[in-house]
Amino acid sequence: MHVRAGTKFGLCLLLLALVVIGVHGKEEHKTNKSHAHEDEKKNVEAKSTTPVPCTCGIFLSGQFKKGSKAAPKGEPVITEEQDAHFAHNSIGQRQCANKCIESIIKYLPKSADIICSTIDRDCHKEKAYLFTKNYNDKWINSNMSAGRAFCCKDNKPYKCPMI
Q1: What span, in angstroms and rounded, lies between the C-alpha atoms of 51 and 85?
Q2: How far apart are CA 69 and CA 76, in angstroms?
Q3: Cα(117)–Cα(122) distance, rounded to whole angstroms?
Q4: Residues in contact with 74: Cβ distance below 8 Å, sequence separation at least 6, in sequence order
Q5: Domain coordinates of the chain in residue numbers?
Q6: Which of 26, 32, 84, 158 reaches 20 to 30 Å from 101, CA-CA?
Q7: Whole-model pTM above 0.70?
Q8: Which residue ranges in the chain fall short of pLDDT 50?
Q9: Nearest CA to 130 among 159, 158, 157, 94?
C-alpha cells in the first residue's frame, strides 16, 4: 500500500488526537465515576416522566399470553410511531389504537407478505394483534386482531391448513 507523505502526517495527527482523547477520557472517567450513578438515576427519571407518543406495534399471538397483562415477548413484528400524543387515560389509549388502525388498514391486503418477510422464524396459525404505547413506554394489548391466522415458512406466506 502506498501512502503519500501528507497523508501519513494527517494519519499521525489523527492517531495522536485519539490517544490524547483516550487518556483524557480515562482521567475524566475516574473523576466523574462518582457522578455516573447520579446521572444514570436522572436519565431513568427523565425517561419515566417523558410522555411517549402514540406508538403502534403488531405482535403475533405466539409472543404473548392471551388475557395476560404481561408484556409481549420480543420486539413487535411491525412498529410505527405516530406524530400524536393522546391523554394518559383509557380514552387516550382508544384514540391511539384508532389512529394506528387508520395508518395500518392500507397494508391489510399485503399483510401476509409483510408479516412473513419481517419475522425471523416460521409461524403456524398465528394471529396478528395490535398493541399500543401511549404516554407510558409500555405495550398495551388493544385486543384487536387482523381476524385471520398467518402461516409463514422461510419468510414466505402459505395458506394455513383448515385443520
Answers
A1: 8
A2: 16
A3: 10
A4: 59, 63
A5: 1-50, 52-157
A6: 158
A7: no
A8: 1-37, 39, 41-46
A9: 94
